[in-house]
Design goal:
Structural class: alpha/beta
Mean pLDDT: 94
Radius of gyration: 23 Å
Bound molecules: S-adenosylmethionine
CATH topology of the largest domain: Rossmann fold
CATH class of the largest domain: Alpha Beta
Number of strands: 11
Strand content: 15-25%
Length: 401
C-alpha cells in the first residue's frame, strides 16, 4: 500500500475509535475487509494509530485551540506535521488517499518549527481525573514517566530454559534477520532491538523456546518464594503469562493451577503451556471450594488501570472513567478476599498489578492487612517504567495461621 492509502486506513480506524468502538475489534474487522494488505502495511497502520493515541491529548488540545473538529483526519494531519512527514505524499487527493490539504491545514503546516513546538506544548497524555493520583504516586519521577508514556514500548522475550538458552536464541534471532540484546537485569530476558515483526512466526517460537514478555514483567516475578515442590494457583490467569514464567523457571516441577472469571481467556494459557512443555490444571469456581487451605502460593495478578503499560495499550487510558476505575479498585479487594482462604498456613499471596498508582498497589495491600491480621507483608516491589520495560507492582503477603 502507498503511504496515502495507509494514512487513509489510519483515518478510518481512528474515526471508529473516536465513535467509541474497541480498537482490537476495529483492527480485526479492518484486516478481514482488506485482505490485500500485507503484514508490513498492517504494522505501519497500527504504528501510526498507536503513535497518535499515545499523544491524543496533545493533538486534541491543538484542535480545540484552533476550533477545528476532532476526527481521524485531523489527528493524522497533526501527526504528519509533528513528525515532519511529506504532506504531499499523504494528502494526495487520489483514489485511495485522503483529500488534499484544506486552507487551515496549509496555513498550519507553514508554521515554523518553533511555532509548531509552541503549539504542541507539553501536555501530560493521561486522563485528567488521574493526574493527582499519578503525581502522588510517582513524585519526582512523574515528568519522566509522562514522557516515557508517549513513546513506543520496548519489545522483549523470555527464553524458556526447558527448551533452550539465551545464547542459542540470540543466534537463532540473528539467523532470522532479527536483532536482540541479552538483558542485564533478568535471567532469561532478551530485548529485541531490530526487526521484531516476525517474532511469533519463527520455528523457535512455535516450538516454545521463548515467549514475548516484557522485561519488567519478568523482573516482577523473578525472585518470588517458589520452589520445585510448590503448588501454585494463578487465580486471574488470563493468558497465563505470569504462571508460565514461574513454571518454566522451575523446570516444570511443581503443580500449577489456573483459574479466571472469564474461562475463554484460559484457552490461550493452555496453548502457551503446551508450547512451553509444562502442564496447567484448570480450576472452575465450583471446584475451588475443595481447595481450601491447599496452595503454597496464589498469584493474584488483578485487573487494574494498566497505567504501567499504557504505552503498549494506549486505548486503555482514554476509555477508563472515574466509575470504571472505582469498580477496578473494589474488584482488587474482592479478589484478595476470595483467595485468602485458598492458602496453606505460611503460604503466600503474590498480589501483582501493571499499575504505577499507589491507590491500586500498596494502599490495597495495607487495607487488606489491616482487615486480615493473620497475614503479614513479606516484601513489596515497585518496578518503574523505563526504556527497558513497563511499570509493575508486586507484594508478597504471607499467611501466619
Ligand atoms: C491482569 S489480567 C491477568 C493477566 C495474566 N495473569 C497474564 O500474566 O497474562 C487480569 C485477569 O483477571 C481476570 N479477573 C477479573 N476479575 C476476576 C475475578 N473476580 N476472579 C478471577 N479472575 C478475574 C480477568 O478476566 C483477567 O483475565
Amino acid at each position: 500500500m502507498r503511504k496515502d492509502a495507509q494514512a487513509n486506513a489510519a483515518i478510518s480506524i481512528l474515526d471508529e475509535f473516536l465513535d467509541g468502538q474497541n480498537l482490537n475489534i476495529i483492527f480485526s474487522n479492518w484486516t478481514k475487509n482488506n485482505r490485500y494488505a500485507g503484514s508490513s502495511d498492517r504494522e505501519s497502520i497500527r504504528n501510526m494509530v498507536f503513535d497518535i493515541l499515545r499523544v491524543k491529548k496533545t493533538f486534541t488540545s491543538v484542535l480545540e485551540k484552533e476550533k477545528q473538529p476532532i476526527n481521524g483526519r485531523a489527528l493524522v494531519f497533526l501527526y504528519s506535521v509533528f513528525y515532519g512527514l511529506n504532506l504531499n505524499e499523504i494528502f494526495t487527493g487520489q483514489k485511495y488517499g485522503p483529500v488534499k490539504l484544506t486552507d487551515f491545514e496549509k496555513e498550519f503546516s507553514n508554521l515554523s518549527n518553533e511555532n509548531i513546538n509552541e503549539y504542541f506544548g507539553i501536555i501530560d497524555n493521561i486522563p485528567d481525573f488521574l493526574t493527582a493520583q499519578f503525581k502522588r504516586s510517582l513524585g519526582r519521577n512523574y515528568r519522566n514517566a509522562m514522557r516515557l508514556l508517549e513513546r513506543r514500548a520496548p519489545i522483549s522475550i523470555r527464553v524458556n530454559p526447558l527448551k533452550s538458552d539465551v545464547s542459542s536464541i540470540l543466534e537463532c534471532l540473528s539467523s532470522e534477520g532479527m536483532k536482540g540484546k541479552k538483558s542485564k537485569t533478568v535471567r532469561y530476558g532478551i530485548n529485541i532491538t531490530g526487526n521484531p515483526r516476525r517474532l511469533t512466526q519463527i520455528q523457535a517460537f512455535k516450538d516454545g523456546c521463548f515467549e514475548v514478555q516484557d522485561l519488567h514483567s519478568q523482573k516482577t516475578i523473578e525472585d518470588l518464594p517458589v520452589n520445585e515442590h510448590t503448588k501454585v494457583l494463578d487465580y486471574c490467569a488470563g493468558a497465563g503469562g505470569k504462571i508460565l514464567s514461574i513454571a518454566c523457571s522451575l523446570n516444570g516441577n511443581g503443580k500449577f493451577y489456573i483459574h479466571d472469571i472469564d474461562k475463554r481467556k484460559l484457552k490461550e494459557a493452555d496453548l502457551r503451556a503446551k508450547r512451553a512443555g509444562v502442564k496447567f490444571k484448570r480450576l472452575d469456581i465450583e471446584n475451588l471450594q475443595k481447595y481450601c487451605c491447599s496452595f503454597d502460593s496464589v498469584i493474584a495478578d488483578v485487573p487494574c488501570s494498566g497505567s504501567g503499560a499504557w504505552r503498549r495499550n494506549p486505548q486503555q487510558k482514554w476509555r477508563i472513567t472515574p466509575e470504571s476505575f472505582n469498580e477496578i479498585l473494589i474488584r482488587q479487594t474482592i479478589i484478595l478476599n476470595e483467595v485468602k482462604d485458598l492458602i496453606k498456613k505460611n503460604g503466600y499471596i503474590f498480589y501483582i498489578t501493571c499499575s504505577v498508582l499507589k491507590i491500586e498497589n500498596e494502599e490495597v495491600i495495607y487495607k487488606f492487612l489491616s482487615d486480615n491480621k493473620h497475614f503479614r507483608l513479606l516484601n513489596k516491589k515497585d518496578v518503574t517504567i523505563d526504556n527497558h520495560g513497563d511499570g509493575f507492582f508486586c507484594a508478597v503477603l504471607q499467611k501466619k495461621n
